[in-house]
Write a structure and sequence with these properties.
The complex is a heterotrimer of chains A (614), B (510) and C (386). Helix content of chain A is 74%, strand content 3%. Chain A has 23 helices and two strands. In chain A, strands 1-2 form a two-stranded antiparallel ribbon. In chain A, a hairpin with a 2-residue loop joins strand 1 and strand 2. Chain A is globular and about 95 Å long. The termini of chain A are far apart. Chain B is 72% helix and 3% strand. Chain B contains 20 helices and two strands. In chain B, strand 1 and strand 2 form a beta hairpin. A two-stranded antiparallel sheet of chain C has the order 1-2. The N terminus of chain C is likely disordered. With 386 residues, chain C is mainly α. In chain C, a hairpin with a 2-residue loop joins strand 1 and strand 2. The chains are: A mainly alpha (614), B mainly alpha (510), C mainly alpha (386). The interface between A and B is large, with 70 and 87 residues.
Chain lengths: 614, 510, 386
């Protein structure tokens, strides 16, 4: 890279390090080294470095707008034919994603300062968020698969630690474990893909890999396995069926982390998928799997969300659902639409989760049936929820309306089925948010919502800021997408979208609300209700299959080890007990006998050697 | 220069043992530490003198010792031995530092530690088969004594088991060395490549087989591993640190130096089977670890699994995989030493290692929060989390081996996934939840009111673990130092078969 | 001052088990103390209450400052500075070298949310609504943002005013308690208080003396003073603030995120707030300073104001200063049982020595109501030696 480039570009390798340095800076407080003073300085320092990351990112963005995309490449480790590098791809898309990540991290951290105001382990939280942010910033900028994998795995680790933040709470213990293991399955599969590509293609730079895969004719099986390996990692990160379980359980973690997880972490997973997308062309099966997974996640996630009784979970399943649509868009080679969808989803989902967080903070309650009547007292929270929900559904001309419009328009002719999936998801999502809104914000106050003043400014301000951003999303999208323009879809598509959203809204308005969590009296309906409420019993299926299998294998191996291998050895030992006994003589003896044994052994040894050699 | 690495520990150990007059435990401890620090400094001096561009043995020293039997005193160091010498010096020092509450025979204890360290140095530096064997055996007896005198309740059984297994290992290795000399007619016991021209493939396979099993016991690989969990369970923390961190590496070192290094052709023939063996060992060790409820046994079984990666890498014998093997030896040394140290801290404070009993040790005031934090770091490193030593080692091993043995490599990766399972169980059970160090009584009221009074962990108790943890992270983030140190040697080793073919083609071998 | 007779040794806990409700009723009716009367307990309780008193002093000053000077301020950035905006103080606060006022706010929110007693009832009265309307009318005239929000969210401002009223009332309550606790420490040093029974009596008399004090609150908007809690409302210290405070903070509390799952499907939290048992008398001291345990903030504040004598006692333990904040929490729990004991004693409807059967029955009913709640609390700390 020439020295004439602006400093911001030359130093762009610093961007992920801001987050990591935040972690390091928090250590004196997180480890309890600072005893007398509270942990807040750690939070302030993290906010500061995150702000630096945002500013640096925007400087780079400006420079890149002027100079065009840049590539920064640093050698990390090389040996023989292996060359592992740190690479930054400073393209507009990546930098936009970076700005999204760092900015959301910033507002999330401000929100956390309010939400976790009575939390003594604040420093540990901020250290983890710093780690989280650093890894995410690296993932979106990464120009090679190795670095992407490296950082995705770090994201898995920090997700585990963030979900496990309240480690003493029993459900957190299982939630953190499941979050880690589910993602780890995806990561190991991805690692297989990465190692394979590294061995076969040599370089792991995305550009080299694209070139390699274009002229590659792999055997079908190999290509399929490779493709599946590559999509497994993003599937885990984006909480897609059947690896979505962790997102539900991750709701046990602190809400500010949930904000980041549901908006930008899943985005990072999808960005990695976008980057490996050209490689997937070698494997039609992988594409089909991607489509199937995306479709099931989109519709299944939306349905499961509708039957959730927990406020956080009702919103988090819609993340699975939307990322499913992103997967569909990627599988159908529509990267641009996928990006627009990710962008509009991330902002809207973030404000939605902030609103959810402030409801929880005020009411000490996540149970939808115990909430109600908040609408007239909590302006920022209510507005945040409304704006977030509107931004996610294709009804009002906010972010997702335009993204969905482009997607439906593009798919109607090529793959009408998936256009229908988009509309269906839209309708179901509208239904879900309408029912949640009615339950939480409308109606008369319940005992737990009788006294609910608006949250403090540290939570309200980020909420309002992001709400405003959601409202101006279409303008930003219009600037990014000059050709063909975000409105490049027919009025029929627009009508279909509005129609599906309106249908969902009406249905959500009309369905009866449960005052307590009631199961339907109709048999089949009850079965369906339970099936959805318990997320298709995914956790039980896992427990009955893969967990049982591994546990069984472990028991068998251990039994074999104890009975057969060890038993055999002990049997042999019994036979030669005499010699064993004589060797044990020294145990209770005196020093001299030990020395004697040692010397005797050596003398014997050398003697026998000289005899043999002699 | 290299002789000093033997002289310091051996002479120091003997001096400590036979120093006239009474010495307080504290003074003996300080003297032992000083000697070990000296050894570490000297190892670093050797590192400075080491030429990384030279693939062969260097800084050689030799003089004829017992010439009649070909027992020459010949030392040399290459990129394979150098990191191991450093690890040995560092971990012996760590285990001496973390020796606490030494109630009996401090002189003997420190003398034995020094003796082991010297013997291990000798084995890594030997350029003569018999010399290697001597040191290999010499390390055995002190360790046996360390387990059988300072061990746990069942130490007699474990120590005897260890002794018998390793003695068999020694006999097999000695037999192979003698057989080699007998069949080739060479009595100098140097480390030479054995060619088919010299020795028939059948004989080669028999000798290699004996060596393989000998070292497989030491590493240990399934099914010869059963002494290890017992030895670890009964050994005290410092001895476990030494055993896992340093002594197992003698086996893998032998595998690379003598099996692969001397019998490249026979090795190539056996390689597919060895890769399969590696996969079995990895999966077996990992699955057995899942079922353990004693933290120390769990870590011990994880060693069985993780040493399997080295066999895989050796079987593939590509430049990258062999470099990965060296990385794995170093990183396993650091990580398992770290884990044993931490389990030791937990045991010393709570008097139990039972995963069915321990809960919530992360509790900031009454638990062991810092130990818990380092434990999370340690298990994540062991599970191959990027940014720490385990990841780069595993990546190199897998990357280097995939081309040669795809299936075995993929199975080993599954083993890496299983590592996450059992170590996560360990952390989640023992460190998460509400603090408890006694078994649940079944009465929820009583269980929620248990008084827990654990002694605190002083900073000096965590310092060794902290140092190891920074080593683990350092190697994970900046691996090129070790890479540069070993790359030439491992590349040269990987080229042995082709070199051999070239030599034979040129008719240079007599 | 007539001390409550010292009990020889109240057999309240049996080998870690819990006392039965009947034992508690008898203890209360006999006028014995809940906490075992030992010299260790005396010094620990008095010292911990002294440090608590110092912390409450700061809390009280700040809550009253917030309610009066930060009233309806949308961005109360400097609300913990008590009006002192000197760079030195700001720097100290940036370093978090300060009292954790967040805990005071937490108690205030808890009190508002549980909403029991006379103060809460007044907040729903028409008189309050009228006062609110007047304040809102005046406030919206000066503040365009509020002028826009008020018609859209009609309950928004009155809810914030309710919150401010609770804040101020809690500030007034803690003012009294702070002085009482510091007086107690002085009395113990002077030798006027020499047993746990005397501590309970001292506290009871302090509470009874303040019982009828009026709780009022007015705000200044511009240059006019407007009542939020006017004297005519007749709110008094003991019944309208102290009792709801005990209910909200000592007994019910709110579930800690660090120990209880909020997951609706797991149903770990009762839908009925009256069933909550997360308060100070029920809390588990062991996870103190862990994540998601709000009282950690209070323990830290008390740690910073710990009297030397208590600090020395704690340092003698196996963990030394390492687990001092858990020890504070355990002692604090004992102290809170003493305060509860005093509150119960002070609110008996009739004198304990009464011979009238109807009065005895009323007293017994009062004791039984408390015993029913206390018998599942952490009473195991009561005869714990240290």
């Amino acid at each position: 890279m020439p020295d004439t480039f602006p400093l911001s570009i030359q130093l762009s390798w610093l961007i992920p390090l801001y987050g990591f340095s935040g972690m390091v800076l928090s250590l004196p407080w997180a480890t309890g080294w600072v005893q007398r003073n509270g942990p807040r300085p750690a939070a302030y320092l993290n906010l500061l470095v995150t702000l630096l990351a945002v500013l640096h990112g925007s400087l780079v963005l400006r420079a890149v707008l002027a100079l065009g995309p840049q590539h920064l490449d640093i050698a990390w480790f090389s040996a023989a034919d292996l060359d592992l590098r740190i690479g930054f791809d400073l393209s507009l898309t990546n930098l936009a994603a970076l700005e999204l990540v760092t900015f959301m991290s910033l507002v999330g951290q401000v929100f956390a300062l309010g939400y976790l105001d009575k939390e003594w382990s604040l420093a540990r939280f901020y250290a983890l968020v710093g780690f989280f942010e650093g890894a995410m910033a690296g993932v979106v900028l990464s120009s090679n698969l190795f670095m992407s994998y490296f950082l995705l795995e770090m994201l898995t680790l920090s997700t585990y630690l963030l979900v496990g933040f309240w480690y003493a709470q029993p459900l957190v213990v299982t939630a953190a474990r499941d979050a880690f293991l589910t993602k780890r399955v995806g990561d190991v599969l991805l690692l297989m893909g990465v190692v394979t590509l590294s061995a076969m293609a040599g370089s792991l730079e995305f550009n080299d890999l694209y070139a390699w895969s274009a002229k590659q004719t792999l055997p079908a099986l190999g290509a399929t396995l490779l493709g599946l390996g590559l999509i497994a990692g993003p599937m885990g990160k984006c909480a897609q069926f059947p690896m979505h379980l962790w997102l539900d359980e991750a709701m046990e973690g602190p809400n500010p982390a949930s904000i980041l997880r549901n908006s930008v972490v899943v985005t990072c997973g999808a960005v990695v998928l976008l980057k490996v997308m050209p490689l997937l062309l070698v494997s039609p099966v992988a594409i089909d799997v991607l489509l199937a997974v995306g479709t099931i996640s989109a519709v299944g996630g939306a349905l499961v969300a509708i039957s959730q009784v927990d406020l956080k979970r009702a919103c988090s399943y819609s993340t699975t659902s939307y990322l499913g649509l992103v997967f569909v868009a990627i599988a159908l080679q529509q990267p641009f639409i996928a990006l627009l969808l990710l962008f509009s989803h991330a902002l809207a989902k973030a404000v939605l989760f902030m609103s959810v967080g402030s409801v929880i903070a005020t009411t000490n309650c996540q149970d939808l049936t115990e909430l109600g009547g908040l609408g007239s007292r909590m302006p920022a929270t209510t507005t945040g929820f409304l704006v977030g929900a509107a931004g996610l559904t294709g009804l009002l001309p906010l972010g997702c309306f335009w993204s969905f419009g482009l997607m439906v328009e593009g798919l109607t002719s090529r793959a009408p089925f998936f256009a229908a999936v988009v509309l269906l998801t839209n309708g179901l999502t509208a239904l879900n948010f309408t029912r949640v809104y009615r339950q939480v914000f409308m109606g008369s106050p319940h005992p737990k919502t009788r006294r609910t003043p608006e949250v403090n400014w540290l939570m309200a301000l980020p909420m309002v800021t992001v709400s405003v951003l959601v409202l101006v999303t279409p303008l930003v999208m219009a600037r990014i997408d000059r050709v063909p323009g975000i409105g490049a879809f027919s009025s029929v598509t627009a009508l279909a979208l509005v129609g599906s959203g309106l249908a969902g809204l009406l249905a959500g308005r009309l369905i009866p609300l449960d005052t307590f969590w009631s199961r339907s009296v109709l048999g089949p309906l009850r079965v369906l209700q339970d099936l959805l409420a318990f997320d298709f019993y995914t956790d039980r299926i896992y427990r009955a299959t893969i967990v049982a299998f591994v546990a069984g294998m472990a028991r068998i191996t251990n039994g074999f080890d104890q009975l057969v291998v060890n038993g055999l050895v002990n049997r042999l030992a019994d036979v030669s007990m005499a010699s064993a006994e004589s060797l044990k003589l020294g145990v209770s003896g005196r020093l001299q006998s030990y020395v004697f044994t040692v010397v005797a052994a050596i003398v014997l040894l050398v003697g026998s050697l000289s005899w043999l050699g002699g | 220069m290299l002789s000093a690495l033997l002289l310091i520990p051996f002479a120091g150990g003997l001096g400590l043992l036979f120093w006239p007059g009474e010495l307080s435990t504290e003074r003996i401890r300080r003297a032992g530490l000083a000697l070990l620090v000296l050894q570490l400094l000297w190892s670093l001096r050797v590192l400075l003198a080491f030429d990384t561009t030279n693939p062969g043995l260097q800084l050689q020293e030799s003089f004829a010792w017992v010439d009649s039997i070909g027992l020459d005193y010949r030392l040399g160091v290459d990129g394979l031995a150098m990191p191991l010498v450093l690890i040995n010096a560092a971990l012996t020092l760590v285990s001496a530092i973390c020796t606490r509450d030494l109630s009996q025979r401090p002189r003997l204890y420190f003398a034995l530690l020094l003796g082991i360290s010297g013997a291990v140095n000798g084995a890594f530096l030997s350029e003569n088969l018999l010399l290697f064997f001597l040191f290999y055996e010499l390390e055995l007896i002190p360790l046996w004594l360390l387990i059988s005198i300072w061990g746990g309740a069942n130490r007699g059984y474990a120590a005897t088991k260890f002794l018998i297994f390793t003695a068999v290992s020694g006999v097999l290795i000695l037999g192979a060395f003698l057989g080699l000399s007998l069949f080739t007619g060479q009595v100098d016991f140097g480390i030479h490549i054995v060619t088919t021209a010299q020795l028939g493939m059948g004989t080669q396979l028999a000798l290699l087989g004996a060596l393989l099993i000998g070292f497989a016991i030491k590493i240990p690989l399934v099914p010869f591993h059963t002494w290890l969990p017992d030895a670890h369970t009964e050994a005290s923390t410092p001895v476990s640190v030494l055993l896992a961190g340093v002594l197992l590496k003698l086996g893998t070192y032998g595998l690379l130096r003598f099996c692969l290094g001397m019998f490249p052709e026979a090795w190539a023939l056996l390689a597919p089977a060895l890769a399969g063996w590696a996969a079995v060992s990895v999966l077996y060790g990992s699955l057995a670890a899942i079922a353990q409820r004693d933290m120390k046994r769990m870590v011990a079984y994880s060693s069985v699994g993780h040493m399997g990666y080295i066999l895989l890498a050796a079987a593939a014998a590509t430049p990258v995989s062999l470099l990965g093997a060296v990385f794995q030896m170093v990183s396993h040394g650091l990580i398992s030493a770290l884990l044993f140290l931490l389990v030791g801290v937990v045991y010393r404070k709570t008097r139990t290692r039972d995963l069915e009993v321990l809960r919530g040790l992360l509790n900031p005031e009454r638990g062991l929060p810092f130990t818990g934090t380092l434990m999370i770091l340690g298990v994540m490193a062991s599970a191959g989390m990027p940014g720490m030593a385990g990841f780069i080692s595993e990546f190199l091993v897998f990357r280097g081996s995939l081309g040669a043995f795809p299936l075995a490599t993929l199975l080993c990766m599954v083993g890496s996934g299983l590592t996450a399972v059992y170590f996560l169980l360990l952390v989640n059970r023992a460190f998460f939840g509400r603090l408890a160090v006694t078994p649940p009584s079944g009465d929820p009221v009583a269980d929620s009111r248990l008084e827990v009074r654990l002694p605190g962990v002083a900073l000096r108790e965590t310092l060794p673990a902290l140092a190891l943890a920074s080593g683990v992270v350092g190697l994970g983030v900046l691996p090129w130092g070790l890479g540069r140190l070993s790359e030439q040697a491992t590349t040269a080793m990987a080229q042995l078969p082709s070199l051999l073919a070239a030599l034979q083609g040129g008719g240079l071998v007599s | 001052m007539r001390p409550i007779p010292r009990s020889p040794k109240p057999p309240l806990t049996y080998g870690g088990g819990l006392p039965s409700s009947n034992d508690l009723v008898e203890t209360l009716l006999a006028g014995r103390t809940l906490l075992a009367d030992t010299p260790d307990h005396l010094s620990q309780v008095v010292d911990v209450l002294e440090s608590y008193g110092e912390v409450l002093d700061a809390y009280s000053i700040n809550l009253i400052y917030q309610a009066e000077k930060q009233f309806l301020n949308p961005f109360p950035v400097f609300r913990f500075l008590d009006g002192d905006h000197s760079p030195a103080k700001i720097w100290r606060h940036l370093q978090h070298d300060r009292i954790n006022f967040e805990y005071a706010e937490y108690c205030q929110k808890s009190m508002l949310w549980h909403g029991t007693g006379g103060l809460d009832a007044y907040l729903d009265s028409e008189a309050f609504a009228a006062d609110c309307a007047a304040i809102v009318a005046r406030k919206t005239r000066r503040d365009p943002l509020l002028a826009v929000l008020n018609p859209l969210f009609p309950q928004f401002l009155s809810e914030l005013i309710r919150s401010a009223a609770t804040t101020h009332a809690l500030g007034q309550f803690w003012r009294v308690m702070s002085d009482l606790f510091i007086d107690l420490a002085r009395a113990e040093r002077d030798g006027r208080v020499g047993s746990i029974a005397a501590v309970v009596t001292f506290l009871k008399e302090g509470l009874v003396a303040a019982a009828g004090a009026a709780i009022t609150y007015a705000v200044e908007i511009g240059d006019t003073r407007l009542w939020v809690l006017p004297p005519e409302a007749g709110l008094t210290f003991l019944m309208d603030v102290a009792v709801p405070y005990v209910e909200a903070v000592f007994l019910r509390g709110t579930p800690f995120l660090g120990t209880v799952s909020f997951n609706a499907q797991a149903q770990q939290i009762s839908p009925d707030q009256a069933q909550f048992m997360y308060g100070a008398l029920y809390a588990d001291p062991l996870p103190t300073m862990g994540s998601g345990i709000p009282p950690s903030l209070l323990m830290q504040d008390m740690y910073r104001h710990l009297p030397d004598r208590l600090h020395r006692t704690y340092r003698a333990g196996i963990r030394g200063a390492g687990d001092v904040r858990v020890k504070i929490c355990m002692t604090f729990q004992k102290a809170m049982f003493c305060v509860t004991n005093a509150a119960i004693a002070g609110t008996f409807p009739h004198p304990l020595g009464s011979d009238v059967p109807a009065e005895q029955a009323a007293n017994r009913a009062h004791a039984a109501a408390w015993a029913a709640r206390l018998c599942v609390a952490r009473t195991d700390c009561l005869d714990d030696p240290g």
